[in-house]
Amino acid sequence: RSFPLKQAFHLPVYVYGRPNMYFLTGNMYVEGKIKRGMIKFNCTAIGAPNNMSMQTDLLNQGKIIFHGGGFIGTGNKIRVSHNGILEFGEDFKIADQVNVGCYSKIKIGSHARVAHRCQILDSNYHYVANLNKRIIPQWKKTISIGDYCWLGNSSTITGGVTLPNYSIVGSNSLVNKDFSSIPIGSIIAGVPSKYIASGFRRVFNKKYEIETDKYYSDNPNGLYIIDDKIYPEYISTI
After folding, report:
1. Residue 196, Cβ neighbours under 10 Å: how many?
2. Cα–Cα distance between 63 and 2 in angstroms, integer?
3. Mean pLDDT in the chain?
4. Rounded mean pLDDT, 23-30
5. Could you give the CA distance from residue 157 to residue 109 in angstroms, rounded to a whole number?
6. Which of 69, 116, 132, 136 is most exposed, with the fewest beta carbons within 10 Å of its own?
7. What is the DSSP string of 56-119?
8. Measured between alpha carbons, how far is 211 from 231 in angstroms, rounded to an integer?
9. What is the rounded CA–CA span in Å between residue 138 and residue 44?
10. CB 121 within 8 A of CB 86
11. What are phi and psi of 162, to 5 degrees?
12. Taking Cα atoms as reference points, which of 148, 140, 131, 128 lies closest to residue 102?
């Protein structure tokens, strides 16, 4: 119903449980190669703080674009309003109990990770009149979350935010301004959030993660030193 017939024929989305589909008047489509079951929707993840008794809600009156496969967990609220565009990069992952409200445009980059209980909201949902200045400001602004970004649990991203690639957002942070000028691989955190430091990468590389974990199993009081030959992209490769 949502995808073009030529794409729907390949069954690109596998739906788990019984999610609530309130509106499907909008469109969805895949840009790029299509594979059967490439997108997991309302799916549980082993070890994650999910709750399958909480189904994901989908309200799509706009447009949802997938640039590759990805994962959407349980208990999420995803709303794309009229003229809204929600865009997912390749290998994205949305954990559980995440609230996404898209009234203009939200872009979530490739390999981005959104932890449980986060909020990504590009609008205030209501106009607020400033009687001192006699104005009513715009109530929605676009959001752009770069590739390989990691949003810590219970963080909130509001309209007008841009996060460079490899950004790490600390848990419980409120990100309410544009961070496009900070270096890639930076940590931001706080309420409201601020730039903390740069030169960081989440260890996405599974082989390297296992190697690091083994080191600390053998040396619980040690400190793992990164070899000079190891480059940042290797650490971040999924």
Report:
1. 14
2. 9
3. 95
4. 95
5. 14
6. 132
7. PEEEESSEEEESS-EEE-SS-EEEE-TT-EEEE-TTEEE-SS-EEEESSEEEE-TT-EE-TT-E
8. 16
9. 37
10. no
11. -125, 125
12. 140
Residue 110 structure tokens: 């490739």
DSSP letter (8 states) at residue 162: E
Question: If you average pLDDT over residues 143-165, what whole number do you get?
Answer: 97
CA atoms in the 13 A half-sphere facing the CB of 8: 7
Q: Distance of CA 118 to CAs 56, 139, 181, Å?
A: 14, 20, 23
The alpha-carbon radius of gyration of the chain (Å, integer) is: 19
Residue with structure tokens 């607020």?
A: 128
Q: How far is the C-alpha of 101 from the C-alpha of 141, rounded, in Å?
A: 11
| pTM of full prediction above 0.90 | yes
Hey, what are 66's tokens? Answer: 């997938």
Around 131, how many Cα atoms within 13 Å sit in the side-chain half-sphere?
0
* One-letter amino acid for residue 27 of the chain: N
Q: Is 54 helix (H, G, I), strand (E, B) or coil?
A: coil
With tokens 């309003």, the residue in question is 81
Of 71, 74, 59, the closest CA to residue 28 belongs to: 59
Distance CA 39, CA 32 (A): 13
